């Protein structure tokens, strides 16, 4: 009985965390859909963008769906353990199993279709650079987005400083954005001498340098999901044997 109570408490705590995480993700999803000035709203205004990029604007729906699923999971896990409800525990097990299978399938798809992802990045690059040349310095949202991104990541443009050549900002000032130079004012010569890397390269470098942490997080989530399924089935069987 002591082990049974311990499993119930652990199930309650674990699913309480899931419930809170689901509420947070759901809140972010709602905010993304409501806030027209968010990053996704700016991305949605890029003309001639690849179809896959346009789908990013709908990521708010994905966050809402994920948050909703986590809320349901947390509720079923907590109530199922505390009320010793076999039905709730079984539903919790099924949902976690479906999520686990979906994650495995997604990992396989990412590995198999990695070349397609690289092609998408190149297509995205062409659209983003075209947008910079057309609207940087004229579109307030786009300009603020790039300034914030370049300052935060210490990078310049999508590929390099030449992305800003012929942009409204360059045409009116004959200079590049300040993050593109180590020495100000950011003249063409100063930008050439500085050789600040593009934001795409910087993001890829950060992801590669943190790949070990990312893999560890993914494996940790998988272990937690398997543990949750084992504990829920243990409680399910224990309740049935009483």
Write a brief caption for the model.
With 242 residues, this protein is mainly α. The chain contains eleven helices and no strands. Helix 1 packs antiparallel against helix 4 and helix 5 packs antiparallel against helix 11.
Q: What this model shows, in words?
A:
The chain is mainly alpha-helical and 242 residues long. Helices cover 76% and strands 0% of the residues. The protein has eleven helices and no strands. It has helices spanning 2-34, 39-43, 51-54, 59-82, 86-112, 114-135, 140-153, 168-173, 188-194, 199-209, 211-241. Helix 1 runs antiparallel to helix 4 (59-82), helix 1 crosses helix 11 and helix 5 (86-112) packs antiparallel against helix 11 (211-241). It is elongated and about 80 Å long. It starts with a helix and ends with a helix.
Strand content: under 5%
N-to-C span = 11 Å
Determine the fraction of residues in helical runs and give it as a percent range. Answer: over 70%
- Computed structural class: mainly alpha
Low-confidence stretches: none
**What is the total tally of β strands?**
0
Mean pLDDT: 79
SSE string, helices as H and strands as E: HHHHHHHHHHH
Secondary structure: elements and pairs:
Blueprint: H1 2-34, H2 39-43, H3 51-54, H4 59-82, H5 86-112, H6 114-135, H7 140-153, H8 168-173, H9 188-194, H10 199-209, H11 211-241
